[in-house]
Amino acid sequence: MQKNLSAEQISHYRTEGYLVLENFVSKPWLDRLNAVTQSFVDLSRKVSTSDKQFDVEPDHSADTPRLRRLNSPVDQHPTYWEFASSSEIVDLAESILGPDIKFHHGKLNFKYPQGGEEVKWHQDIQFWPHTNYDLITIGVYLEEVEEGQGEMGFIPRSQASELFDQYDESGERWTGYIKDQDLRRVDTDKAVFPTGGAGTVTIHNCRMIHGSYPNDSTKWRPLLLQTYTAADAFAYTDLVRRSPHGEELIRGKAAKWARHDPRPCQVPPTKIGTIFQAQQKESTT
Fold it and tell me: What does the pLDDT look like over 97-129, one tens digit per residue?
């Protein structure tokens, strides 16, 4: 089992803004994660609308559960936290961020068959702005992902380009995506949509433009996501500090000084809900 990234792989991440490692996570971990995930799918049958634990599609029901997200899985079950804080993926984070690492937040996104909502092109860091941009998100395919399954797509090298305004045209409402007129400056034709077997890992920078289309297949697509920060990157907002594990040091030493990137970072409203709620213009009350 590979632990640390090679110089070539790190160079690819630095240049392209993302990296894909096929079949990286071991089967014992996948078995544990999938078992726990199924237990939460079963638990979601008891809810009819989105709540603090589950974000569900409008047609979600007890008979046909259709989840969009399990919010902050590390707070829901110790297996998710053990994986996020001490599994082999933390070695990947260290290869990119260095020896001093904080866990920022996690989520488990779903795309159910013959649906599974589109996630429009967006950048992550405007949801949770920091003093610098040394933040990465590591995604894990809990099951095999094929073309047309709502796989996440990346626009190579977009992390080195501009940071976009993710409010609407009025500047009042947070949308959580890049406006159509601004997308004209983005080469979306070059987007890549990685597929791979269960255990495949994706790594992307917090400035990376990414998104996904609906799931047109007959299989669901559970994607477990963990975000890590360099220890000297500090959040401007308290959105994830509500979690007991938010900004928890998981490797190395705590920073005594904040490091500030000279490039500005947009700040979201105080209450924004999930990306699905923002992009679908759903109430978060």
Answer: 999 999 999 999 999 998 877 899 999 999 999
Residue 42: φ, ψ to 5°: -65, -40
> Cα separations (Å) of 225 from 71, 252, 257?
11, 22, 28
Amino acid identity, residue 61? Answer: S
CB 240 within 8 A of CB 111: no
How far is residue 121's CA from residue 37's CA, in Å, rounded to a whole number? 27
Task: Answer whether 129's CB lies under 8 Å from 206's CB.
Answer: no
DSSP state of 262: S
Please work out, in degrees rounded to the nearest 5, the angle formed at the alpha carbon of residue 164 by the alpha carbons of 110 and 19: 50
pLDDT tens sequence across 129-151: 999 999 999 999 999 999 999 99
User: What span, in angstroms and rounded, lies between the C-alpha atoms of 135 and 103?
Assistant: 10
Q: How far is CA 98 from CA 39, 94, 251, 256, in A?
A: 35, 5, 10, 16
Model's pTM, two decimal places? 0.94
Whether 133 and 232 have beta carbons less than 8 Å apart is answered as: no
Output the CATH code of domain 7-50+60-279: 2.60.120.620
What sign for the dihedral angle of Cα 11, 205, 96, 72? negative
